[in-house]
């Protein structure tokens, strides 16, 4: 956990070096950040609709919590996106850590406004790609906010949210759905699902992509993300991957035990290979959703 925090601190310091001292131009970091609750207008749609650019989804309003770390000035922001269990203790931890560094945060809740508590036991309750649309809608709000430095917005996501944070970097998806006029300065997916091959998924944003995963994660195996990284490398676009030895899924959750626990009835696609073919359609080439194996630390997904 300390390694993860230190590494993110380095990345964030690179994005916003002026925040290293309390005497930065924007003034001292307040003890309690100011909070704005922001409604995000979005859509609930199938993955097929998302892939085809079909905007005839069901209108939805979801919530985002914007915590402004400093009292004045345009500030760097990290957008955080939860996993299949909804907003958990790891999100709160990262918010406190980032705010303490003088970095504002926007936490997007993609479930509550849609009447969901989680998708752990039934991933079909919400299409995987909906969270990417939510991310872009959040970026539209930040692009217009007077307290945001639009050149210094990073994206972090975890598990299902990590998958969204990873593929939100695809140029094709930006062209279809990102109406903000800006891009993220960095994409930081944590233990994402990399089982799906999308059309044009080796054409990414020019911003850096840094993926974090545990070597013994049996819910979203890191091997599949490494295979995707190899495809990117062959296409001339690399991502950086940090591997944590002996780390399970959701390794950054402060409330999970240090020994693995079984997430009963949790669904995973670790034994699946999914490919979009033809463009706009996703289908399984091997198996349908499998149950999580014993020993999977996947309580917060």
CA radius of gyration: 18 Å
Kindly state the number of beta strands: 13
Strand content: 15-25%
Number of domains: 1
Terminal residue distance: 17 Å
The dominant shape is: globular
Q: Please tell me the CATH architecture by its name.
A: 3-Layer(aba) Sandwich
Quick check: average pLDDT? Answer: 86
In the CATH scheme, what's the topology name? Rossmann fold
Q: Helix- and strand-based class? A: alpha/beta
Helix % is 10-25%
At a glance:
Helices cover 25% and strands 24% of the residues. With 301 residues, it is an alpha/beta fold. The chain has a single domain, classed as Alpha/Beta hydrolase fold, catalytic domain (Rossmann fold), CATH 3.40.50.1820.
Structure in words:
It is a single chain. The chain is α/β, with parallel strands linked by helices. The chain is 25% helix and 24% strand. It is built from seven helices and 13 strands. The chain has helices at 2-15, 47-52, 89-100, 130-144, 160-167, 171-177, 222-234, and strands at 34-44, 58-68, 75-81, 104-109, 148-158, 186-190, 196-197, 210-214, 240-244, 267-268, 274-276, 282-284, 290-291. The strands form four sheets. Strands 1-2-4-3-5-6 form a six-stranded mixed beta sheet, sandwiched between helices. Helix 4 (130-144) packs across helix 5.
């Amino acid at each position: 956990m300390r390694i993860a925090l230190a590494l993110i601190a380095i990345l964030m310091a690179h994005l916003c070096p002026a925040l290293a001292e309390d005497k930065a131009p924007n003034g001292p970091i307040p003890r309690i950040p100011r909070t704005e609750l922001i409604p995000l207008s979005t859509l609930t749609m199938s993955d097929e609709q998302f892939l085809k650019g079909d905007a005839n989804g069901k209108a939805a309003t979801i919530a985002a919590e914007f915590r402004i770390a400093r009292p004045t000035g345009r500030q760097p922001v990290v957008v955080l996106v939860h996993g299949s269990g909804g907003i958990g203790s790891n999100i709160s931890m990262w918010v406190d850590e980032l705010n303490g560094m003088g970095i504002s945060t926007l936490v997007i809740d993609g479930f509550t406004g849609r009447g969901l508590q989680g998708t752990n036991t039934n991933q079909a309750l919400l299409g995987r790609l909906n969270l990417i649309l939510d991310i872009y809608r959040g970026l539209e709000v930040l692009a217009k906010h007077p307290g945001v430095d639009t050149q210094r917005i990073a994206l972090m996501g975890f598990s299902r949210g990590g998958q969204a944070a990873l593929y939100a970097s695809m140029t094709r998806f930006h062209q279809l759905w990102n109406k903000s006029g800006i891009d993220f300065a960095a994409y930081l997916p944590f233990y994402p699902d990399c089982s799906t091959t999308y059309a044009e998924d080796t054409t990414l944003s020019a911003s850096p992509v840094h993926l974090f995963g545990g070597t013994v994660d049996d819910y979203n195996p890191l091997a599949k993300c490494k295979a995707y990284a190899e495809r990117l490398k062959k296409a001339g676009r690399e991502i950086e991957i940090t591997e944590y030895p002996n780390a399970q899924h959701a390794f950054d959750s402060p409330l999970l035990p240090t020994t693995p626990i079984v997430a009963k009835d949790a669904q995973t696609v670790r034994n699946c290979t999914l490919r979009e073919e033809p463009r706009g359609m996703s289908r399984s080439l091997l198996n349908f959703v499998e149950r999580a194996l014993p020993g999977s630390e996947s309580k917060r997904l």
